[in-house]
């Protein structure tokens, strides 16, 4: 990550473009194939470690773009590819020969994916896909998009090639500038074998991809927090004020200790969950949601405090990476599902214990 991918970041951030060379390099190194070796969820341990290392390397939007290719698009192709066309794309995606994205959101559709208006209609022996997708990452750099669309029989997922995707607007995002988030117009005629998930099964299939995307986002966030905390703690040891290192000031070292503890315990929870899920061969949606929302909210808090611990330098773009990490991690509370949607998934799993209640509670 440090040698091959990190050097791409300055130009990507400056130009607000996603470098496809990052996907190519990871694929050529065998990282994608290694991650997706094994059962239906591949190697979850490798997923966590790879995502965490991208965060620790400070890759920001490049890391998230690689993650969306690997943890959102590839799991859909890997599980639902039944045609030669789809299987060939999966092989190219794992080798890093193509960059993939997933297109779901629309102008009036954020979390409510069942309400998408992009249409899938029959056109002889082929299919017509037509609509506009609002926030697609890395949309302008992708060779292929997996598009969630509406059919009379229910939502479907269709493989749309680059010539059927047209960039309508490049969003000027606050952070993740190297992710290249765009609004895409979709207008394509595709063969029947390009229908990856048949009408009616699109939402359930999309949930499979989101499980892996959320796990990867949590891991990448915690990797970035490790970078932020290491820099902040080292700064407290090196920087002197009032004739003594900042670390000697109780208020500052205790604040850092609190932040470090929260990050450390959340990381241990992530490792334990990935180990358990790998052993069971099952990723509980509520637990993946809980990890993602916890890490995302912690990310916003910790990076803000690390900026503060660096004083004025923390607020500058050219002296430390903390200002960028702060901006970048804000979007993790939205990407892959908002905080509120994650909490809804958690709450849906609540099960009351009436016998326990009646034992302890007196009416």
Automatic annotation (TrEMBL):
Originating species: Streptomyces uncialis
Q: Write down the PANTHER family for this protein, in alphabetical order.
A: LONG-CHAIN SPECIFIC ACYL-COA DEHYDROGENASE, MITOCHONDRIAL, MEDIUM-CHAIN SPECIFIC ACYL-COA DEHYDROGENASE, MITOCHONDRIAL-RELATED
Q: Where is the Acyl-CoA oxidase/dehydrogenase middle domain?
A: 101-186
Q: What is this protein called?
A: Acyl-[acyl-carrier-protein] dehydrogenase MbtN
Cofactor requirements of the protein: FAD
Q: Which GO terms describe its biological process?
A: fatty acid beta-oxidation using acyl-CoA dehydrogenase
Enumerate the InterPro entries for this protein.
Acyl-CoA_dehydrogenase, Acyl-CoA_Oxase/DH_mid-dom, Acyl-CoA_Oxase/DH_mid-dom_sf, AcylCo_DH-like_C, AcylCo_DH/oxidase_C, AcylCoA_DH/ox_N, AcylCoA_DH/ox_N_sf, AcylCoA_DH/oxidase_NM_dom_sf
**GO CC annotations on file:** cytoplasm
Which Gene3D superfamilies would you find in this protein's record?
Acyl-CoA dehydrogenase/oxidase, N-terminal domain, Butyryl-CoA Dehydrogenase, subunit A, domain 2, Butyryl-CoA Dehydrogenase, subunit A, domain 3
**SUPFAM superfamilies, sorted:** Acyl-CoA dehydrogenase C-terminal domain-like (SSF47203), Acyl-CoA dehydrogenase NM domain-like (SSF56645)
Any one GO molecular-function label of the UniProt entry: acyl-CoA dehydrogenase activity
Residue ranges of every copy of the Acyl-CoA dehydrogenase/oxidase N-terminal domain listed in the record: 2-96
Acyl-CoA dehydrogenase/oxidase C-terminal domain ranges (all copies): 200-348
Residues spanning the signal sequence: none
Q: Which UniProt keywords apply?
A: FAD, Flavoprotein, Oxidoreductase
Q: Which CDD domains match?
A: ACAD
């Amino acid at each position: 990550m440090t040698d091959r991918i990190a050097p791409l970041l300055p130009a990507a951030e400056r130009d607000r473009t996603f470098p496809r060379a990052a996907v190519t390099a990871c694929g050529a190194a065998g990282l994608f194939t290694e991650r997706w070796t094994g059962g239906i969820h591949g190697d979850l341990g490798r997923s966590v470690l790879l995502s965490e290392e991208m965060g620790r390397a400070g890759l920001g939007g490049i890391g998230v773009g690689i993650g969306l290719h690997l943890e959102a698009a590839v799991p859909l192709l890997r599980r639902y590819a039944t045609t030669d066309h789809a299987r060939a794309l999966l092989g190219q995606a794992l080798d890093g020969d193509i960059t993939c994205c997933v297109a779901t959101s629309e102008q009036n559709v954020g979390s409510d994916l069942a309400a998408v208006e992009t249409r899938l209609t029959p056109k002889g022996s082929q299919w017509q896909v037509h609509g506009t997708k609002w926030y697609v990452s890395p949309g302008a750099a992708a060779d292929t998009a997996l598009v969630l669309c509406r059919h009379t029989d229910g939502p479907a997922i269709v493989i749309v090639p680059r010539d059927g995707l047209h960039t309508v607007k490049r969003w000027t995002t606050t952070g993740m500038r190297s992710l290249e988030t765009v609004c895409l117009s979709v207008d394509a005629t595709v063969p029947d074998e390009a229908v990856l998930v048949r009408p009616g099964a699109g939402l359930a299939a999309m949930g499979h991809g989101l499980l892996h995307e959320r796990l990867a986002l949590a891991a990448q966030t915690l990797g970035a927090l490790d970078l932020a905390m290491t820099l902040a703690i080292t700064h407290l040891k090196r920087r002197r004020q009032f004739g003594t290192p900042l670390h000697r000031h109780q208020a500052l070292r205790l604040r850092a200790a609190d932040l470090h503890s929260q990050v450390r315990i959340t990381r241990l929870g992530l490792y334990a969950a990935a180990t358990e899920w790998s052993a069971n061969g099952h990723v509980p949606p509520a637990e993946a949601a809980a990890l993602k929302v916890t890490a995302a909210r912690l990310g916003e808090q910790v990076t803000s405090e690390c900026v503060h611990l660096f004083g004025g330098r923390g607020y500058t773009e050219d002296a430390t990476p903390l200002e960028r990490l702060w901006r970048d991690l804000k979007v993790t509370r939205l990407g892959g599902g908002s905080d509120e949607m994650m909490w809804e998934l958690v709450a849906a799993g609540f099960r009351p214990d009436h016998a326990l209640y009646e034992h302890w509670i007196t009416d």
